[in-house]
Specification:
The complex is a heterodimer of chains A (558) and B (442). Chain A is an alpha/beta fold and 558 residues long. Chain A contains 23 helices and 11 strands. Chain A has helices spanning 30-34, 44-60, 70-81, 97-100, 115-126, 139-145, 163-176, 220-227, 236-239, 244-258, 267-279, 287-294, 297-300, 307-313, 326-339, 359-390, 400-408, 421-426, 430-438, 443-462, 473-490, 500-509, 515-534; strands at residues 3-4, 62-66, 86-90, 131-135, 155-159, 179-186, 189-195, 198-201, 414-417, 543-547, 554-556. The longest helix of chain A is centred in the last third of the chain and has 32 residues, at 359-390. In chain B, β8 (307-311) and β9 form a beta hairpin. The chains are: A alpha/beta (558), B alpha/beta (442). β1 of chain A pairs antiparallel with β7 of chain B, so a sheet runs across the interface.
């Protein structure tokens, strides 16, 4: 039989078995697309990633950018292109000749003008739907004399700040409950760090996640459905169009009966299980049985909830009181559900992957899963409303849509928490730091991490960055080394050293802000900002260090 | 007035310890980059726009860009060099113009055409070729061109001056990759073609008899029903009426089978193979490529060795893998070396392949630079090319002293005979007894 080629599978969606759906990456869920009223053609390519709701969140957000050198400008450019609501660019400098060599948003005609003004004008050109304004002021000054300035924003992007200012701004934003992200380019090194007290993600949309099929513990309706299926039917057409879900439920049941209710666990048993499936094949072209064998690992997978989810359920915030966020109220309801109606399981996710099957059986099966998911959702919804009442809130203050999405994504919930940068700087997780210092894969990245802090200390002492000006190179190298050693010692890492080569390299950079590095850092920062604002996908945890030498960049969890 | 090159100077004018092997810091280097280095950017879309900006601000002054497409509205969320009023204009031209407007001193020559339309000489003029493409075929083509310039010495070592570096980037949604290709030294695109998994196809029986998903219904309308109803007229995905027809047929089919989820947006996505795209991923991958281009051209730092993958779906993950060349690669490998008399005819050459210890190939067909010199099958082509058999191979290869020849035939010993394609590196010598078992590697 000839095969037809539909769309080309993307090179990035690996491991997608033949005849399954064409890669979840670029065909969003039908429910997502159904919520898209009128596709805004300009945003079409990104709407397919975060949908109308994500786009609405972006368009409502107001961003403050501190310093509009290339790092800040490139970060904001990506947000403006994406349709961010409003931006306020804060920078007190004027455009110099050197800026023409690294910043696309200033040109020869803007020499001598306020940089913030020029960058703003360019950004406005990129997307006239975005409200862009600028303030000609040095961010450091604003941080010192007008901290309440920052309260008006959804998120602050702080670029090219030194440690002292970072720490101050961090406190200001934390107190005002404003999201904050630091970004910095320094020669071939770079730094990105989110600082938010807590960021809960319902729509985490991970790349790969096990389907929620309940093959071992089918609920009553599913069980009844499988009982109507005869794997030994003599009708060959029917036989080869039984979906693998039904095959696996039945074989798993058969196995459990003859093994005292246990599941295949050893390699031998798993092999035996697959043989049982194979034995049911009556012809070599029965794709459904082949799929069942390939999918048998789904039977062996553990039941119940993951350790990640358990950690969330056990979090003190799950003991909700008045003032608890919607997320934690729903977590509390989820916890109750799992302990009661769920029987140890989260609400059923409700969707099934495509598989060889007759249309009728597939649609029927799909309806079973959707019905059970709906039933579970209704129970959770009721529990949510009860909890809201208990804590003195309007029981209808969380919408059905939100609760439904919560149930669908229950197994994938993620909570991100970020230390204050000061805490990280003063008391990093020592065992982690020591691990990085001794691991070759991390050596350049952690070296840059330490040296970025060291250059700030250096600059606080000597009023320039090491190597910033020609002529004092040898002296600067020696001073930077001393500073780095003393910093490591302060952190409790006596005896650890950084290589001479890296210290030299840092001095070579002389605080240069290279466009390509700024563009990279800007890309990373803007991507994380989008995740934070749309509340979709999981933002990075820890501190990202860019290593432009061999590209072994790393996320450090300190 | 302080230099415009204030920041780049730190990297180009100062000595360093973590630098490329032939790095010579100084103003000469900076000036040479501006004056002599020529970079070609292939593609002026999501990656191309970013690449042109990044390269223009990384010390390069001589850039060229090639792209056959025109600007569409859906490009505007990331291809930042284009504005609404540019829709319909050639991407290469507008991109070049916009960058030159903002970065004085840089010169960008746009080429609004297909990459296949350019002569090989065009590509050979560039110091480095940077790719911002969205298809495997296009990458394969440029790879074959660049690797085609590669020559080897008698020890099967690549001749450095014939190595044409390529830097290749690709993105999709939150994911991407960047790689450095130094033909003959690092793996080329073909060496690692297995990195791209095979296409997934919906079986015909699924589309025709047992559809289950919305995508099945859409592809039925697109690939089967269209031809039934419009026999002869080809489907044009850019024609809104065609797309609307496919959509309504898909809806009908979905209703018939009780399948939910067919929407116009999904229809477009499936039929046009729309890959979601955002500015941030393009920025990251392009910046990586531009940085590597700067390093290769100047030696100012160590280079990526040699493949970077990027995934920003969950947190952020980058990984560097050092892939190894396939020595037998048909595109970038040295091929099997054969020395031949100028008098050797094509038939004699084909006969020699049978006894050559490294080949043992029978029934060979011979191709040179894409031209079929002799086809053993099918009968029609065999007849057409039979007359070449009596001609000297040297003449058939335009009297070039060396050349690459591709041969296809059955090879192997005994039961293990199978069809295969081999790359040969042929060198001609005048008169004397033809001896294909000459030493000389290969």
């Amino acid at each position: 039989m000839e095969d037809y080629e539909p769309s080309q599978l993307s090179p990035y969606t690996y491991g997608c078995p033949k005849s399954f759906y064409v890669g979840h990456l670029f065909i969003p869920s039908t429910s997502l697309l159904e919520t898209m009223a009128e596709p805004k053609t300009k945003y079409d390519r990104q709407l397919r990633i975060w949908g109308e709701q994500g786009q609405a969140a972006l368009e409502k957000a107001s961003i403050c950018l501190l310093n509009c050198g290339p790092t800040g400008s490139e970060t904001i450019k990506n947000l403006v292109l994406g349709g961010i609501g409003s931006i306020t660019v804060v920078d007190g400098s004027k455009v110099e000749n050197g800026d023409l060599g690294n910043n696309f948003m200033v040109s020869e005609t803007s020499l001598g003008q306020p940089k913030a003004k020029c960058v703003c004008a360019f950004l406005q050109e990129l997307n006239d739907a975005v409200k862009a304004k600028f303030i000609e002021e040095h961010p450091v000054t604003l941080i010192e004399i007008n901290p309440s300035f920052f309260s008006q924003f959804t998120l602050v992007v702080a670029t090219q700040l030194v440690e002292e200012s970072m720490v101050k701004l961090d406190r200001i934003c934390r107190d005002a409950n404003v999201m904050l992200i630091f970004a910095r380019s320094y020669g071939l090194s770079g730094f990105v760090r989110i600082s938010v007290k807590e960021h809960a993600v319902i729509e985490s949309k991970p790349d790969h996640f096990l389907d929620d099929l309940r093959l071992i513990s089918p609920w009553p309706e599913l069980k009844k459905f499988t009982e109507k299926i005869d794997l030994d039917t003599s009708d060959t057409v029917v036989h080869k169009h039984i979906p693998y879900i039904l095959i696996l439920v039945k074989i798993a049941e058969e196995w459990a009966k003859s093994h005292g209710g246990r599941l295949p666990s050893s390699r031998e048993e798993k092999k035996e299980f697959k043989e049982l499936i194979k034995a049911k094949m009556v012809a070599t072209d029965e794709d459904n049985y082949k799929e069942a064998i390939e999918a048998s690992f789904k039977v062996f997978a553990s039941q119940g909830i993951s350790s990640d989810l358990k950690r969330i359920l056990d979090d003190p915030c799950a003991e909700v009181e008045s003032g608890a966020s919607d997320f934690w109220v729903m977590v509390a309801a989820l916890k109750e559900f799992i302990a009661n109606e769920g029987g140890g399981e989260a609400p059923l996710e409700g969707s099934i992957p495509d598989m060889t099957s007759s249309t009728e059986l597939y649609i029927n099966l799909q309806k079973h899963y959707q019905a059970k998911a709906e039933t579970d959702f209704l129970v959770v919804e009721q529990r949510v409303r009860n909890i809201l009442k208990k804590i003195g809130r309007d029981p209808y203050s969380i919408s059905k849509t939100v609760i439904k999405s919560f149930c669908k994504n229950a197994r994938k919930l993620t909570v991100c928490r970020y230390k204050l940068i000061e805490e990280e700087f003063n008391s990093p997780v020592l065992p982690e730091l020591q691990k990085y210092l001794t691991d070759e894969e991390y050596s350049v990245a952690v070296g840059f991490y330490i040296l970025l802090r060291a250059v700030d200390r250096f600059s606080a002492n000597y009023n320039t960055f090491p190597g910033q000006f020609d002529g004092a190179m040898d002296e600067d190298i020696s001073r930077l080394k001393t500073t780095a050693v003393s910093l490591l010692s302060d952190l409790g890492c006596n005896g650890s050293t950084l290589t001479e080569d890296l210290i030299n390299e840092m001095c070579r950079y002389g605080a240069a802000e290279l466009h390509a590095v700024a563009a990279y850092i800007g890309g990373v920062a803007s991507q994380e900002i989008i995740k934070l604002i749309t509340r979709q996908f999981v933002p990075m945890s820890g501190t990202f260090i860019f290593n432009g030498i061999d590209h072994k960049s790393q996320l450090l969890s300190l | 007035m302080a230099s415009r090159s204030r920041d780049l100077d730190k990297l180009l004018l100062r000595p360093g310890h973590l630098v490329g092997p032939s790095f010579e810091p100084g103003t000469q280097l900076r000036d040479d980059l501006q004056e002599y280095v020529r970079i070609l950017v292939v593609g002026a879309g999501g990656l191309g726009c970013e690449l042109l900006k990044d390269l223009a601000l990384s010390g390069f002054r001589n850039l060229e860009v090639i792209d056959m497409d025109r600007i569409e509205v859906s490009n505007l969320n990331r291809q930042f060099l284009f504005r609404l009023e540019d829709v319909g204009e050639p991407k290469a031209q507008v991109a070049a113009k916009r960058v030159m407007e903002r970065v004085s001193g840089v010169n960008i020559v746009p080429h609004f055409c297909r990459i296949e339309e350019k002569e090989l000489e065009f590509y050979s003029e560039f110091s480095i070729i940077v790719l911002g493409l969205d298809s495997i075929e296009a990458r394969s083509y440029i790879n074959a061109v660049a690797c085609g310039f590669l020559e080897y010495d008698s020890n099967d070592e690549p001749l450095e001056e014939t190595v044409k570096p390529m830097v290749d980037g690709g993105t999709e949604g939150f994911k991407g990759h960047a790689r450095v290709i130094l033909p003959g030294m690092t793996p080329c695109f073909e060496c690692t073609i297995w990195l791209f998994p095979p296409q997934v196809k919906f079986p015909l029986c699924t589309l025709a008899e047992t559809p289950r998903t919305a995508a099945h219904c859409i592809e039925y309308a697109h690939l089967i029903k269209w031809d039934e109803v419009h026999s002869g007229k080809s489907f044009d995905p850019d024609n809104p009426q065609h797309m609307q027809w496919v959509y309504s047929e898909a809806v009908k089919r979905a209703q018939l089978f009780g399948i939910p989820g067919v929407t116009y947006t999904l229809t477009q996505g499936v039929v046009k193979n729309i890959i979601p795209a955002i500015a941030s991923t393009n920025a990251i991958v392009s910046a990586t490529c531009a940085l590597e281009t700067l390093k290769i051209a100047s030696g100012c730092s160590k280079t990526l060795s040699n493949y970077l993958t990027y995934n920003g779906v969950e947190g952020l993950h980058t990984k560097v893998t050092e892939f190894v060349r396939d020595k037998d690669c048909l595109v970038c490998g040295p091929g099997i070396f054969m020395e031949l008399e100028t008098s050797v005819t094509l038939k004699m050459f084909i006969d020699q392949l049978e006894d050559h210890p490294k080949l043992l190939m029978s029934g060979a067909s011979v191709t040179v630079r894409g031209k079929n010199l002799y086809m053993a099958a099918p009968p029609l082509l065999e007849e057409m090319t039979r007359s070449n058999l009596g001609l000297p191979l040297f003449e058939l290869m335009d009297k070039s002293p060396t050349g690459i020849v591709h041969v296809t035939g059955t090879a192997g010993k005994g039961d293990k005979r199978q069809s295969c394609l081999r790359k040969l590196r042929v060198a001609f010598k005048a008169d004397g007894i033809a001896d294909t078992d000459m030493a000389g590697g290969g």
